[in-house]
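Sequence in, structure out. Go.
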Amino acid sequence: MLRPLMLVLRLLLLACGLLPAAQAEMLELRQAHVTSIVDGHLEERDTRLPYHWDRRHADRPGTAVFEVPLKLEQPPTEPHAVYFSRIGNRAEIWLNGVLLSRFGDVNRPNREDYAKAPQYVLIPSQLLQSDNLFRIVVSADGGRRGGLSGVMIGPEREVREHYNSVYRWLVNGSLAVAVFSLVVGVIALLLWLTQVDLGPGAPARRLNLYLSAGVAEFCWMLRLSNTAMTDPPLPWPWWGVVQTLAYAGWFCGAGLFCHYVAGWHRLPSMRWVRYAVWVLMLTSVPAAWLALTLHQDVYLTGWYGFATFLFIGYTVFYFGAAVRRPTTEHVLVAAAGVFNVLVGLRDWLVIRASGNIDEISWARYSSVLFGLALGYIVISRFRAASTQARDLMDNMAAKVQEKEHALEASYQQLEQLAREQERAAERTRILRDMHDGVGSHISAAIRQLQSGRASEEDLLQTLRDSMDQLKLSIDAMNLPPGDITTLLANLRYRLEPRFKASDITLVWDVDLLPPLARLEGKAMRQLQFMVFEALSNVLQHAQASELRIELRAQPGGGAELRVIDNGRGFDPERVQRKGLASLRERALAIGARLGVVSAPGQTVVAITID
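Output:
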């Protein structure tokens, strides 16, 4: 069953240009004489290449010298090259006593490994004769698949094309799959960190489907990147143990990924599945260590075989479940699992069990199917989540629009109520101002008439104050917020005729100030009545001939207003008038500072607004 499958795959790769076509002028040398030294024991024999070191020497390290004869009808005139599909782990290549190339240090065991990739060496045409002898020194580590393949020689151009084709297929292809696994692993772990399962009635938890996929892909990336590492970060056999553990991590993570896709993680048996996965991964370490240190390949081959047949049984069961209850995700992952298990069985039979060093693992390429399956699952679930989110957003938008209409109607009602309250408050203020100002003056005039002792001049003064209060109450309705200059100008307009009638000269020393933001409408009215009270006191009591009004800006954006007269003055501490008490109350109400300084010849009322 495997041979036809291999033939079909080779034909496909040949059609895609990933495998080279046979070259008529290239020769492949198979006969060699080998002198090997293993555990101090020297052995000479004729052999036929390829030479599988681990099979010939029971996974024990050693060195060997291969003498490979080459006879040519006539010396070539163009450069030639020699190609090895496998050589090493470290090697030196000599031709007719001349060193052609060295791959690593043959005297340094358990480090470099050049047997994982094909090698290519250029041969100058002048070195080739009719009778030639290749002398190839090989240093091999036990259990590392070292040895020597057949020696392929021919014109440099043809050998190079063959080498480049195989290198692209084996090394570049492995690195491409490793990069793909790295990208898929990063995406899977990011999804695991950011996505949670919000099942009904259950606490939020992370989706371990993505964790298992991410761990599997990272392990496979580590496994495949080994192809390009001629000098790995750990010495042998530790690096071999790490590679075996990475392989175990890949197929155990892939198995858990399949389990989560099927939804079997919700079953009570999931606990035993986790135990089995951990046991399988942890047993890979002692199996690899025993095989590589005791030079007994049976431990590692047996462990690989057990894992392979265990997953064959799991895949058969999984595929049957997918067929009985098919979903796109379940069937897709089941198909990827079946293909990978078949490829894994082929690799175990052809490479591990038979020990063929010319064959390469196909599993490095079939693993891409799991990454593609994960990509499909992520995209399909994202589309489903997007559809749900879009429906949810549409429902929320409809409800929000409904609430907005209800709020708009409520806002209109509130706005209407606010306007009515504002009109009522304005009416109340006007009535209060008229009551406190105009009403008090009219009441005073009535008392003056009833007493019969008030002069006509006093009665006229009281009525004039009442009229001024009424006009100011009306003016206060249209005062610009914060504009003190306009406020003073309005008072000047209302009261200047009375100052002239009283023979008081009005000196106007007012700067044009920008409006103060802190003085809203109510504060402006308080300030208006404060200034009016100060001016009214001058008219009624000061007996002054000159009145000066000053307005200056204060540092920091405030203002200072001063009312100065040259009247007879008074003692602010001893004289307690109703008007002075009213000034202090109004200043406190608007947060202003009031200063009153009085002496015969000058009285200053200062209002400072910070």
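Check: Residues 368-451 form the longest helix (84 residues). The chain has three domains: 2-165, 171-389, 479-609.
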